[in-house]
Amino acid sequence: MPSVPADFEPLAALACARAAAASGYIGETELRGLLMLAAAAPVVAGRPEVMVEIGSFKGKSAVALATFAQQRGLPPLVSIDPHTAPSVTDPGLPETSSFEAFTAALAAAGVSQQVEVHRQRSQEAAVGWQRPIGLLWIDGDHTWEGARSDFDLFSPFLVPGAFVALHDSLHFFEGPIRVFVECMLSDDRFGPAGFLHSIAWAQYRPADGARWRGERARLARRARRLLPRVTPPAEFSGINKLRHKLACARIPHRVPTPKVWFGGLDKVAE
To answer: Band of the pLDDT at 93, cuts 50, 70, 90?
Structure first.
């Protein structure tokens, strides 16, 4: 049974403290959940696999993940984001670019050298990609087409034991929750799965993922109730907003302690 890495708590505290200075839409609770995924990502033949972040905005989660990689002696985080704004799912952003804020956040945290920056769209970054991936963090285009494209482009490079995580899956966006339900929970190549606050995650287990088929199906039945609430032209208002909130409340998404989470990875999902 996996146990909590001895260095996890001080590393998570350092990563969250550095990330607190950066702007962004991910809170400390979710950051700790993301860092638990990073800490459990596989090491193959003694070589840690790369972490890929699609959608970096102003660098909040990038600072946290890069700090983790820096302190662990891992390869640089791969950050993929054109840094253009506004976007379809963020129409209210006043800036036309988040790149200066992103690079400033990395510099302030002392992790500029620990981030491999691809200032381009994921479709462009995927051209010629061959590197194995241990953590695929999808937080870019939240439309169904965008999130599905990010998943389809990079999931073929997951190594056994790798994690896929999608941000904002319990917020009012179609893409992340549909990818989770339709592409991951229905696929026997994935094993343990769940939610860490609004982060939907699943572990790539192509050899034994079928062991978790029943647990994934039960989770999918709850999560699928969100799909009609977020599918256009549904609006986040009135009765639809209430039904969305009620459906979210029925999905287990509390971020557990590291001891509980690491200890449960080889158990069936709740």
So the answer is: confident
